[in-house]
Amino acid sequence: MIPEEQKQELYNQLVELLNANELFFDLPNQRQVITGLATTATFEEYKQGHEILAQDGPVDSFFIIINGQLRAIDTRLKPARLLNYMHAGQLVGELGLLEGENRRGATVDVSVDCTLARFTKKDWVWLLRAAPELKTRLKEYTREYLEHATIDFLGKQSDEVAIKKLKRHIFAYIATLPGP
Questions:
Q1: Contact in structure between 74 and 55 (CB atoms under 8 Å)
Q2: N vs C: which end of the chain shows fewer Cβ within 10 Å?
Q3: Cβ 103 vs Cβ 58: under 8 Å
Q4: CB-side neighbour CA atoms (13 Å) of 36
């Protein structure tokens, strides 16, 4: 249980993370969408090893990671296959809602103690009505993720995933240039 005095701080962190999330950049009503969504959040803390979403479980909520790290695993495969690691600012569990699925496609558990903002299916419907552009952005993000997550490379271990990360800000680009 999160103490009341921490909830305002978590709300502020959530708003900051949403403002920094490229999915929410340049929305016509960005401020209203972000504050509207953040006010519906239920904040929860979880310890390493806790299962957040069960594969084949109901698609009734989604999360945004405030801090910590989660991992998605396909448990139908033997041995189970790591699909992705997720960190602060990322949406989790949105794919089933986006695709209108009835069952979760993967198990998600905590790899590093975390704090999450939980949202309901009703919140999801509100979000897509408030910002219809998000549906297109999420589908494109998902397509790009799947394209890169399935990359196989020589020496790839069962606990490794390939991730493509774009840094579009000029200072981030400069920071990645090799030194003299």
A1: yes
A2: C
A3: yes
A4: 16
Q: Which long-range contacts (CB under 8 A, 24 or more apart) does 31-37 make?
A: 32/130, 33/127, 33/130, 33/131, 36/126, 36/130, 37/119, 37/123, 37/126, 37/127, 37/130
pTM, two decimals, is: 0.82
Q: Decide: 24 and 37 in contact? Cβ < 8 Å.
A: no
Distance CA 113, CA 52 (A): 12
Inter-axis angle of helices 30-39 and 121-130, to 10 degrees? 170
Render pLDDT for 91-103 as a digit per residue (tens, 0 to 9). Answer: 999 999 999 999 9
Q: Bridge-partner residues for 109, per DSSP? A: 51, 71
Q: Which long-range contacts (CB under 8 A, 24 or more apart) does 3-6 make?
A: 6/43
Contacts of 133 (CB under 8 A, 6+ apart): 27, 28
Q: What are phi and psi of 161, to 5 degrees?
A: -130, 150
Q: How far apart are CA 26 and CA 38, in angstroms?
A: 18
Return phi, psi of residue 168, to 5°.
-100, -10
